[in-house]
Amino acid sequence: MKDIQIRPATSADFEAIWAIFQSHLAAGETYPFDLDTSREAAHAYWLGAGVTTRLAVLGERVLGMYRLVPNQVGRGGHVANGSYMVGPAAQGVGVGRLLGEHSLHEARRLGYLAMQFNYVVSTNTAAVMLWKKLGFSIVGTLPKAFRHKRLGYVDAYVMYQLLQDPDHWPTADD
Amino acid sequence: MKDIQIRPATSADFEAIWAIFQSHLAAGETYPFDLDTSREAAHAYWLGAGVTTRLAVLGERVLGMYRLVPNQVGRGGHVANGSYMVGPAAQGVGVGRLLGEHSLHEARRLGYLAMQFNYVVSTNTAAVMLWKKLGFSIVGTLPKAFRHKRLGYVDAYVMYQLLQDPDHWPTADD
Is the pTM above the cut of 0.90? Predict the structure, then answer.
């Protein structure tokens, strides 16, 4: 694990990102995207304007990635939204945890006050456990909101945590 | 109330939509959009490709509107997301309820299996009460997720309801 680095993504990383993204779509167990999601849509999602994307790399090899965006515009822009994918060859060795910890650090550094996951598939127990370990709580349950490829309709969770003490949040309005 | 009609929106309605949209942004109490949201962004939100938009009209006058979109792509596309705005001159006379009822009917007609609101401002008690009356439950609470113009950071709710009996949901996968 000690040789794994986290670094910003560039357009040159797109093929590696695309391969990991495709593996998640094929599984149909973690993210809603259709298997026929276009390269253009994937590029916009991972490398579009305003998206903060970081890769976990071992030398030249991309193991996984995350993205941070504001979860809402304007009056909701103080809450970050994070998305994470780890490639099939790097599952279960702690890459998700590294990405999660890094993303929380990065979100604080960018000035976000809270962080939200809109759509954690309830049957993805490894992810749910990891997010709890990293300070997130399940703040909502969306009944049958995800059509799981093997299991059919399953619940999805909304997970959330404050990143700064609310007593010290900025109070200024527009 | 009996003379109020609900009809599809067209591009010709954009000025009326824009005026109502602007009134909500100025208030800063219901939706996250910044006051400097562009006309182009508003047009895409209300009249963009794939957006189902309906207006409540009294003769030529637009009183309010709603939009329906899939809340997620692909494996989450069976859940509708609805957004509603009523103009300042038509508040409190039941237009929101008419729009809400119509949107539920329309969502069922379009084949959605559930409906979700991602971001109901908790201090917007009229809206929260109306959605409960129309069958929605609060399924999640997002702590301090909305920066209210008068009240500062307040909670937002995730609200949800199933639109069809899950025993009869389609089971086919890709």
Answer: yes
